[in-house]
């Protein structure tokens, strides 16, 4: 017992918080990458996360392709749709007010959700974890489902990998340079429009990857993305989009904060992240890691 | 907002056309209940006022709020509760709803104006979602059921609002007062300062205007008028539900304004009329409404950012310019 709370309940909720935090981190990471390059807030990020989960579900249901291949295929499929959308539509909006990008992707999210709602209804579809990760481990103080442990570890690897890609590789250097001054980078012979397309594709692919990873944890439902994306927006406001690492850390911390609130004051658990956002706005309007006011 | 397409494209021709449209519009609205289903017309007027209130902020101050459903739906809950549970008269209920929306607007606005542009949109969305969860859990809203069977009562103890015609003219008067208020605000010195903030915020600051205060004032005014629309809607439909506070509703009002024409007086009304008609039409079919509204969003952003009324103004201005 800690503070009158059974230790199992405490760790159970902390694990739920950590799982949620993993998804917040992966999604806000994708949002930050896209925003950094394209200056567009990708409202469709939640819908693309849902698309990733449905890609996994459909690969299994219609083609018999299991979790592990789907883990590669689903993000690629979502990334490809992202590339098509960037080429056809988003690339026409770069010279306009950034709000148009937000409005366009909002419309896209509505269409994607509406289409899946039409075919699959609002109730969720079950997607079971792969046999390798079925079951769980008894840690003595709590029962740890293997798949959830995998989600936490995998999301950490994905977040760190993306961070390294951007901070330590040549491609990442191009990306960061093009964020600072696109025309100068273009003058050095780097194909900036291609870089923009790839960035959106990678960002969408990350959302799709988060989606397929979420499929066995939550149910695969057309609405799984829309409520999540608003929380992720709050995470992004708290972290500030100036820093990739900031987005990752904020995601995990706020997930844990949400988990802790579920233990001590369950009624407030759905709004705690928004409350934290309000407090951060009062004390540090630029966000915890933000440079731009 | 530095973007030219979000600024108003009013010319002298446009202004004259607007007066003509207003005159025709008012006559049409007075005569309308004899030709159309009153509930449909009242719904249209409520959403038109809501969109106009939203446009005061987006079109004339350049702030994109993604959380206006909180004021619309919040006011609807307050009015419904006051009228049904406390037995208040309809006018007192509407006043309470509007006051509630003002308080919500003050709190949300105070937080949101601390950031600009895209962050402003995300903050308003997040705060409105927080209010949504509050409404989901607070006992007085009755969660998923909403507040049902709200009595319309007698306006000032004299006019029986249970009669559809009386109710319609009450809604029409509220709508006209609301739109007139917006027109007065936009064309006042205060409105000019709002426009200067929209055009170039830094320059407005350098001219010595305390931009933050003006933004907050515009935010609260917009919230109050959105609340007025929501309160009246609660009386019209005699219920208040979670639909009115959800993010989809915030998106809908953006669509109405965008489709009609951001930064024009008539645009949001036209946009609201189109969207409400479309929803009524699609309500009977199997086809999901969100697919259609989402597609309209994408088409508007890609092809005609000025909206229908904005495009008409631009064409007229062009045509006028060619003749001289």
Estimated radius of gyration of chain A: 19 Å
- Domain tally of chain B: 1
Separate helix tally of chain A:
11
Percent helix of chain A, as a range, is: over 70%
Approximate helicity band of chain B: over 70%
Which class of secondary structure composition applies to the elements of chain B? mainly alpha
Please render the helix and strand layout as text.
The complex is a heterodimer of chains A (293) and B (324).
Chain A: H1 7-38, H2 45-63, H3 67-88, H4 98-120, E1 136-138, E2 143-145, H5 146-168, H6 170-180, H7 182-187, H8 192-214, H9 226-239, H10 244-264, H11 272-283
Antiparallel strand pairs in A: 1-2
Helix pairs in contact in A: 1-5, 1-8, 1-9, 1-10, 2-3, 2-4, 2-8, 3-8, 5-6, 9-10, 9-11
Chain B: H1 12-31, H2 38-61, H3 69-84, H4 90-112, H5 117-137, E1 154-155, E2 159-160, H6 164-186, H7 189-199, H8 201-206, H9 211-237, H10 247-260, H11 267-283, H12 289-303, H13 307-323
Antiparallel strand pairs in B: 1-2
Helix pairs in contact in B: 2-6, 2-9, 2-10, 2-11, 3-4, 3-9, 4-5, 4-9, 6-9, 7-9, 10-11, 10-12, 10-13
Describe the overall structure:
The complex is a heterodimer of chains A (293) and B (324). By secondary structure, chain A is mainly alpha-helical. Chain A has one domain (7-129, 146-283): ABC transporter involved in vitamin B12 uptake, BtuC. Chain A is 70% helix and 2% strand. Chain A contains 11 helices and 2 strands, in the order ααααββααααααα. Chain A has a two-stranded antiparallel sheet with strand order 1-2. In chain A, strand 1 and strand 2 form a beta hairpin. Chain A is globular and about 65 Å long. The termini of chain A are far apart. The mean pLDDT of chain A is 89. With 324 residues, chain B is mostly helical. Chain B has a single domain (4-323), classed as ABC transporter involved in vitamin B12 uptake, BtuC, CATH 1.10.3470. In chain B, 72% of the residues lie in helices and 1% in strands. Chain B contains 13 helices and 2 strands, in the order H-H-H-H-H-E-E-H-H-H-H-H-H-H-H. Chain B has helices spanning 12-31, 38-61, 69-84, 90-112, 117-137, 164-186, 189-199, 201-206, 211-237, 247-260, 267-283, 289-303, 307-323, and strands at residues 154-155, 159-160. A two-stranded antiparallel sheet of chain B has the order 1-2. Chain B is globular and about 55 Å long. The model of chain B is unreliable at 1-10 (pLDDT under 50). The chains are: A mainly alpha (293), B mainly alpha (324). Chains A and B meet through helix 4, helix 9 and helix 11 of A and helix 5, helix 10 and helix 12 of B.
